[in-house]
Each structure stands twice: as structure tokens, then as C-alpha cells.
Amino acid sequence: MDETQIASLLKSSDLFPIPQSLKLSYGTAGFRGDATLLASTVYRVGILSSLRSLKLAPSTIGLMITASQNKVSDNGVKVSDPSGGMLSQEWEPFADQIANASSPQKLVALIREFVEREEISIGDGKGEVWLARDTRPSGEALLRAAEIGVSSVSGCVAVDYSSAALDDGANGVGGEKMEVLKGYLRNLDIEIRNTGRDGGVLNEIVGADFVQKEKVVPLGFGVNDVGLRCVSFDGDADRLVYFYVSSGEKKIELLDGDKILSLFALFVKEQLNVLDDGCCRLGVVQTAYANGASTDYLKGLGLEVVFAKTGVKRLHKKAAEFDVGIYFEANGHGTILFSEDYVSLLVDKRKGLSEGSDEYNAVSRLVAVSKLINQAVGDAISGLLLVEVVLRHMGWSVQKWHELYKDLPSRQVKVEVPDRTAVVTTREETEALRPLGIQDAINGEIRKYKRGRAFIRPSGTEDVVRVYAEASTQEDADSLADSVAQLVKSFLGSS
């Protein structure tokens, strides 16, 4: 194990200190005991499950939280091998050792020794652990502990089929309407926070804009929400971003508009692959501000990716050129457009398909998406509903969704200039046409950095030129942004 992996395990294990005098033994039913004492045990079994999955890769391991016939105040955890049977007895001594390890340091030492002995490769492969629990009140918190344990091993993801989600309503209209909608959709298990009814102020330390820019939890969210699927609306509910709390601090893992776009594009493409008739032109529209990793991911799916100038109306117009066009800005504003002709084609096609067949179901899903999503301009509520449907369909946790790709580090700066109109860009804003020579100079800076990309564009509202830069490391992204900003000052002067 490398130092990064060791640090990750030490940090996450600090969240689940082992109770004094706790002594457990892994038996036929796994570990069982008083539910209030089991968080550290379940967390550590999550680690074991990840290691088991990596050892048997590419196999999925099951982790079940239950105490079967025991009283409700008890709970337990057990592991299922890929066959569906119990954990191999050869691994039970290791389970006992890590469950009873007296400190994070002792725990990591045991894991390190076991990984070396079993020749388990961490970081090179992909492990997957399916999580489940019974209905005991203690189960939800223990499930989160398991999820953190699984995810603390590099390359491993926990698949939680729990439907529960938390919604930050930004103290705006979206929270109020979600409360109403819950009454109609009984299968939508979601808790609404920041509805404005408790005196919260609209968009103040809450909402999609705050979460996306600051990358910290909004008010009303915190340590008790670690690992849970969360979503933030903006004040007027026309955009959304997802996130989950990654530790006991305020830090979050953000799933912005690029991630939502990628999820929707993957789902739609999978349905089209089932049909395999070549009748649909599927396109994805991004702006220059889209993270380069998302663009690479989408192109890797074989999708047609085009760019439009910043602004929803421009993305919308471009998306309308396709049979199915998907667009999102990183801020969470976007939608999916279906041409009327293509929807009519789908409806007619379904009439000739056998009900329940793969093709019939794929057509039905696409038609349903065209009805669910707000094609007029997009909104947070229909976006949330589609995300929840797709995740349920995929059987994905928010963590697995997040691992579709890893964002490249980026930085945005603005440079005050005497005349912003001196900068003229291409229609997609990816390159500068004026001042003459500045794009060549920018390209020269980009070539200095691994996975470097940068562009400039004039602000639409103030005399500044905006600079965006990304690279393989945050240090390089910062350096590239600073270099391009200096070029802007050199070519245009500074005010």
C-alpha cells in the first residue's frame, strides 16, 4: 500500500473509534451485538469486503447489516462471497483481527500485512461491494459506516440500493414544491431541508450556487450526513447539483452539471444501444467551461460532443439540432431535448415490439424521459426526478456515479482591462481571434503543462477578461491561469 492509501485509512478510521472492552468474533452470523457499539466494526468489515472484492476481481461482494431474529436494539454485519455463500472461513481470522484492532495505527498495520501476504493489488483494480440492511432504526447509520469503509480502499465503490436522499431547497420555491410533490410520489424517499419555513434566508449559505462554488456543505448539513446522497437547488429551482459529505468536516464531493450530463448521456446511449437501429442522432452540448475530464469521458462513450457559447439559450439552440440533444452547464442548468419527429418514431416503433422485450423497454424508457424532463428550459425538480430514476435503474450509489471520471484541477481568474471588447473569440469561446497573437502565446503556455487547457473570454457585464485554466495538478492549473492572466495584461494593459 502506498502512503496515500495509508493516510486515507487512518483518516477514515478516526471517524469510528473502537469502544473500550469491545471483543467480537466472526461466526456463522458474522458479527452481532449492541447496535450502539458496532459502528467501528461495520466500518472495518467494509474495508474487508473491498479487499475481498479486489482479491477475487472482477467479482462483487455483498455486505448485509442485520441481526436477524435478535431484538431490535441489536444489529450485526456479515459478508457474502460472489457465489452468494458465506465469507470464506480462511478470511474469518483476519475479520476478527481488524474488528478488534485497538487503534487506527494497529488496524492499518494488520491490513498492510494481510494485503502483502494475499498479494492484493490496491489501486490498480476495481472492487465493488453491494450494501443492504434490514429495517432496524440503527441500520441507516451503520450502512453509512460500511460505505465509508468500502470507499476508503482505493479503487473500490459501495453500491447502496437505499432510495433515501436529502434535498437543500435553498430556502426558495423549490423546497416548498418538493414538499407538495412528495405527497404524490410515495416511492420518492427524500428529506427536504432549507425550505424557508424555519426562517432561513434565500440563497444565504445554501443552494446550488453556494455549494458548487464553495464546495462545502450548505447550512443544515454536516457530519451526520456523511456518505448520503444530497442535492441542492438554487433559489428559483431552475438548476441543481448533487453532492455527498466525504468526511466529518464540511468538505464535500461535488457532482455538478458535467456529472449530471454524463449520467444522462450514458443512460440514453445505453437505451439507444439496445435499439441498435441507427435512427437517432444523439448529441451532447457543453461550454468551454466544462471540465476537460467530462469531455474526454463523453467522447470515450462514442458521443458527438459540440461546444456552444456560454449561456443557456445558446446551448439550447445547439441541442435542438439533434434528434436527442443533452446540454448542461457546470452550474447545473440544463435539460434533454427530443425532436417531435423522433418521439413519434419511437411511439410507432413500440407498437411493433413484443411487450417486455429489451427493445420495448428501451423505447418505453426513452419516451418516458421525454415526458419527465422539462424540455422548455430545464428545472431542478424534473432534473432531480430523472437523476433519481437513472440511479435506481443502474443500482448505483452517489459514490459510484461520482467515479465516472475524476475532474481535472482548474482555476478561474478575472483580469481588469481598459476595454474588454478588444478580446474577440471564436463562436465556441475556446480560442481568441483578437488581439492578434494572443492565442499563439496562450498555446505556448498550455504546452508547458500535462493535460493543460486554457481560454479567455470577455465578460458580458464588466470590464474584465475571464481566464479559465486546467491541468493535471492544481499547482499546474494555478500556474497556467496566472501565466495566461499575465498575457492578457501584456496584450491589453490593465486598468
Describe this structure in words.
The mean pLDDT is 93. This protein folds into 4 domains: 3-160, Alpha-D-Glucose-1,6-Bisphosphate, subunit A, domain 3 (Alpha-D-Glucose-1,6-Bisphosphate, Chain A, domain 3); 165-255, Alpha-D-Glucose-1,6-Bisphosphate, subunit A, domain 3 (Alpha-D-Glucose-1,6-Bisphosphate, Chain A, domain 3), CATH 3.40.120; 257-402, Alpha-D-Glucose-1,6-Bisphosphate, subunit A, domain 3 (Alpha-D-Glucose-1,6-Bisphosphate, Chain A, domain 3); 410-492, 2-Layer Sandwich (TATA-Binding Protein). With 495 residues, the protein is an alpha/beta fold. The N and C termini lie far apart (52 Å). The strands form 5 sheets. Strands 1-3-2-4-5 form a 5-stranded mixed beta sheet. A 5-stranded mixed beta sheet has the order 7-6-8-9-10, sandwiched between helices. The protein has a 4-stranded mixed beta sheet with strand order 12-11-13-14, sandwiched between helices. It is globular. It has helices at residues 3-13, 39-55, 92-99, 104-118, 139-151, 173-182, 208-214, 257-275, 292-300, 312-319, 340-351, 358-372, 380-394, 398-402, 438-446, 474-492; strands at residues 31-34, 60-65, 74-80, 127-133, 156-160, 165-168, 190-193, 230-233, 240-245, 252-255, 282-286, 304-307, 324-328, 334-338, 410-416, 424-425, 432-434, 453-458, 464-470.
Give the tally of structural domains. Answer: 4
Q: What's the architecture of the largest domain, going by CATH?
A: 3-Layer(aba) Sandwich
- What Rg, in angstroms, do the CA atoms define? 25 Å
Beta-strand content estimate: 15-25%
**What's the helical proportion of residues?**
25-40%
How many runs of DSSP E, i.e. beta strands? 19
Largest sheet: 5 strands, mixed
CATH structural fold name of the largest domain: Alpha-D-Glucose-1,6-Bisphosphate, Chain A, domain 3
List low-confidence stretches: none
- The outline comes out as globular
Q: What is the number of helical segments per DSSP (H or I, 4+ residues)?
A: 16
End-to-end separation in angstroms reads 52 Å
Mean pLDDT rating: 93
What is the H level of CATH, i.e. the homologous superfamily of the largest domain?
Answer: Alpha-D-Glucose-1,6-Bisphosphate, subunit A, domain 3
Structural class: alpha/beta
The order of strands across the largest sheet is 1-3-2-4-5
CATH class of the largest domain, please?
Alpha Beta
